[in-house]
Every structure is written in structure tokens, then in C-alpha cells.
Amino acid sequence: MAWLLIDNSNTRTKLALGDANGLLAWRAVIPTAALSAETLAAAVGEINFDAVACASVVPEKAAWLAGHFSGRPFHNVTSRSPLGFGFSVPQPETLGADRLANAAALKNKYGSPGIAIDFGTAVTFSVLSPDGDFAGGAIAPGMAAMTGYLADRTAQLPWVDLSEPASPIGATTAEAILSGAVIGHRGMVREILREIISACGDPPKVVATGGGAEFGSKGIAEIDATDPELTLEGVRLIASKVFVSAG
Fold first, then answer.
1. Residue 98 annotated in active site
2. What pLDDT, in 10s, does the model give residues 45-57?
3. What stretches of 45-172 show up as alpha helix (H) in DSSP?
4. Which of 98, 118, 133, 227 is catalytic?
């Protein structure tokens, strides 16, 4: 039995196949703004799967995906899903599905205590306690959001494409924005992470994921591993509990 696994984020929708043993080789990516019956059909093609599991942070897309796949078993990841962990937070129903999937994979692959840092449109920190419960975390703007905000909210500052600054001292306005965005964002992540680690007590395993993980985590020594498919693996683990037990 194979499942179509969907990580539906604000920017990109990542798709993979998985089964009870792990993620399979097939992958596809669709810009979330372009997600439609046509783009999904083109991406999925003749791929065979028995059920669909989705972690979505875009409610209207989640509802559309559930309707699109209404002819098959479909599971949207929520705090009521079989996640493999409990909660020590007051409102687990408000947690994003991506953070829940990240925590499921973090606990299964790396143990607890642990911290999953997801570098996406936002950068999220999801914390597992030493007992393996979801203990909370932090949410901050992603690196691209920092440059986009300046371009959108100022009269003269331009949009810049993210890349490694040649120097922390920008010789032009664009270079200065790049330095502030890249070096500043990494500094923000490092400081948040250090504060969370200090509050954890026992040393946590820190894992970076998301589309910007390799670039965003560069030089942050507190990060132990980079796992770009942590979210999809979490969706797969949840699917294995939903669909295998149902079958």
C-alpha cells in the first residue's frame, strides 16, 4: 500500500510517495499559488497510490485538496491525528500541521528532547520535552519575508534576491539589505535557538528542515543535523497509523 504525501506550505506544495517502510523515490513540487486540478494532474501523472495524507498551513488549499481526492481515503494532519506524542501546551488545536508533522518525525528519528527548526516563509521552532511531549516553540519571519517587507514598506529600498553576502559591510543599498537580511536572520535564529536550548534543561537534538534550511542554518553550530524531508517523513508516519490501522 502506497500513500500520496502532501506538505502544503504557503510558498510550495511538496509531494512524495511513501509506505509503511519509508519514503519512496518519487517527488514533485508545485508552487502553492499555482495549485490546481491541472497542475496536480501534471505532477502526479500515472503515479499509483491508495490514500492521501496532507499537512497543510493554507486552509483553503487543504479544503480543496480534500475535495479533489474525495474518491480516496484522505487525512488532514491536525492535533487529533495519531502523532506519537502528547501536548504540554494549552491549545494544541491551534498548532500548524507542518509543526505537528515535524515533531512526529523528530521524535521518531532523533528522539527527545528535540527542536525542529523549519526554514520556510516563516521560521518555526517546535520543541519536544524530555518526556517526548510537544512543549511549544517560537515563530519568526523567514529570511525572504525580511527583504520583502523592506521593499513593500519603503519608498526607495529595492527587492533583493537572497544569496551569500560578499561582506557584512554592504557597499551598495542592495548589498546592505542582503547583509542585514542574511546575517541578521541567522543571528536571530541563533539567539532564539540558544534561549530555547537554555530553557530545555537536558541538551536537545536540533534538526533543521524546510526549503531554506541549508542556506539559513549556515554557521549555526547549535544545529546538529539538516533533514530537508522531515515534514514529509512526519506525514508518512502519521499516514502509517491512520491507513494501516484502518485497513
1. yes
2. 889 999 999 999 9
3. 59-68, 97-110, 143-153
4. 98
